[in-house]
Amino acid sequence: MSTSLLLMLRARRMKSSSLCIKEATKSLYLKPFIKKRLFSSTSTLNGQRRDPGLASTGQASYPIEVSGPEGLPSRSEQIRRLASSSSASPYDILVVGGGATGCGIAFDAASREGSIKVACIERGDFASETSSRSTKLIWAGIRYMATATASLLSKKLLTSPLETLNDFAGEIKMVLNCHKERRYMTDKQRHLTNWVPIAIPFSEWHVSPAPFGHPIFGFFPVLAPFVLKIYDSMSGFTCPPSYVMGREKAKEIFPQLADRLIKYCAVFYEAQHNDSRTNIAIAMSAAEHGADISNYVEMIDTITEDDGKTVIGIKVMDRMTNEKFDIFSKKVVLAGGPFTDTMRSLEPAEEEMKTAVSAASGTHLVLPGYYCPQNIGLLDYNTSDGRFLFFVPWEKHTLVGTTDTKCPAETLPAPPEDEVKWILDECGKYLSKDLRVRRSDVLSAWRGWRPLAADPHAPPGAPVSRDHIISENPETGVIFVAGGKWTTWREMAEEAVDKVVGEDGPKARTLDLKLFGGEGYSPNLSIQLIQKHGMSNDTAVMLAKTYGGRSWEVCEMSHPTNHVWPRFGKQIVPNYPYIDAEVRYACKEYACTIEDVLSRRTRLAFLNKDAAMNAIPLVADIMAEELRWTEDVKAEQMIAAQAYIESYAGRIPGNQESTLRGSNYENVKELFDAIDTDFSGFLDRTEVGELASTLGIDLSEMDLDTAFQEMDLNSNGRVDLQEFEVWWSETNDSDFYKKLSKEMKISDLKSMGGGTMLG
User: Fold this and answer.
1) What are phi and psi of 421, to 5 degrees?
2) Which among 514, 627, 112 is positioned nearest to 284, based on CA atoms?
């Protein structure tokens, strides 16, 4: 060890002993600002098992009544209306489920002629499950077109020609419907959607093994431009046209692929949206057209006729007040996505219920924006297990997904670490070798569950649906809707309402209607917001593409920044465009919890887990002011938000603690490398604090400062390997050293040899 480093270490110790004492009560570094505690949520309700994740969502907050968006009733008024129904004055349609499909059914029914009386409830927030966890694409089904073609050209065409042709026609019809629905979204809902080009790079003219299990697709690199033109034609060429990008242009656009021998890229277009915002816009549109709709109202049982079979209503609980009441309706429609069977289990039944809906989970990662150009995405159509993998620019970040694993659906978005690793490994294979995709680059990760449906009430020999199921229980009269995709939400809703009202009933009008916020939107809206309210450009663009014409209402609620620019709109967290006014406006749009704001009214938790955690106190303060929370309620809501957001994956793997504790370190360098999570070659104060937090070591800010200053001999904010080795070898009396050694059980590490420098 060099004499100079020893002298620096001793001088540092003397300096640290004379540091000014900071506040003794300063909060623990990266530890929860309030201790986690178990909620008083029961694991069962009316004898039914409840998803454990519900314990960290929808904690009763007893909010005061807040007026709704202009022209819409408040949530409190919606609850009063729902509770006022009776067997003598029932609703015509009661929808259970507030995702895209459920809210879509309510919107469709309420907007038809004839004054259909509509109710819709959701046990969590609107879009709190599957509908907020998609790839953010309204895609027209290019994969289905490929699989249909592969099936048509299979041996089955010779053995069962009619069945094969019928299957092919059914698949193509489904794709054509997807194109129709995508056009509806891009033409009518321009405030919510945009086109995104997606490039498919080809580095060889023949692919083996062939994608989709058919040899013809081995020649996809040759056929792609022709195939994509057919894809364009299925929408009547109303989408931006597909095109070919040459090798040099591809290298210019995608430096991330610089060392790949790209022959060319085929580029096609899909529509993109902010899925949870679209869902909330559908819910508010239903309310605009007269539907009585509310979030955080949970179905806990059914109400039947005297025969004990026919369902005429449901028993519910307002999870914000724990008050229970009945809702009566002529027809009950279940739209619970992958949770539909849990709802169906509440129906009266003499026989054991047949399973109708299973689930497949899909994990998505959010990486920094530099992994993908901001105006074009990438598609790996032939991953190691045959799945599509999208690299899509979204909200100035890179969204990567997805996986496809059959498993029971859960409320919390926690993704399995092995799926996170699989996606990162696939990224590493796809991107340039000098662009290392690190585990610490994962800003956020989540998984959602798509429903896989079968009709338990279908007669023998009935055709199997290729997309979604709408089925009525002949005993109870209850209808359920399941399956489908984001693109076809409107189509599914129309078909469901058609089933309720019959052939002679009023017809759907949704193809001609704009969703909430569509009126008053124009491509220049963001400029108008800047000129009127002095917003930053990023914030104004975000507001316009989130709230459309309702942006004006949001801006009116913004507070002054007291800066020269921007003049209005205080950021709720640095480096993101979300502002204080959105929190206030969210309370008008029936947001009840902090997590509602951080996950779905803004997308902060989906974009950056750490940033969302840091925003909790400020969002809590604003919501407490708007909803008049007591201090106890505010504390509970902060705990619940922290617990929920903690379930997202982030930069630090969920198994990091066991990895750190379970490793056998043979020298100081191996320990240093384990702590250096971003592989930068040095430790910073944040990494040391995160190490302590992961291992459960309590460090105040002052303690962390002291510990880091002991290591940082050069006082440059970076501790390299040599400095760390000196600290480890010479600081036997350091409090942090003692705690770290104890927690990791490596107090004798020095005797094992210090690696290249100390061995």
Assistant:
1) -65, -40
2) 514
Share of the chain above pLDDT 90, in %: 67
Say how far apart CA 443 and CA 455 lie, in whole Å: 39
Strands 323-328 and 311-318: antiparallel
Q: Are 333 and 101 in contact (CB under 8 A)?
A: no
- Both tokens of residue 612? 């969302």
Angle at 385 between CA 384 and CA 386, to 5 degrees: 100
Round the average pLDDT of the chain to a whole number and report it.
89
Give the count of alpha carbons within 13 A of 461, CB side only. Answer: 0
Rounded distance between C-alpha atoms, residue 569 and residue 225, angstroms: 46
Peptide bond into 566 cis (omega under 30): yes
Q: How far is CA 218 from CA 283, 294, 447, in A?
A: 45, 50, 31
In this predicted structure, the answer to whether residue 699 has a pLDDT above a threshold of 70 is yes
Place of tokens 């509602």: 596
**Cα first-last separation, the chain:** 11
Pairwise CA distance, residues 187 & 330, whole Å? 35
Counted residue by residue, the chain has a size of 759
Dihedral of the CA atoms 416, 421, 423, 427 (nearest 10)?
A: 160
Longest Cα–Cα distance of the chain, Å, equals 94
Other C-beta atoms within 10 Å of 280: how many? 31
Task: Band the pLDDT of 753: cuts 50, 70, 90.
Answer: very low
Type of residue at 384: S
* Amino acid at site 122: E
Encoding tokens for residue 93? 């349609």
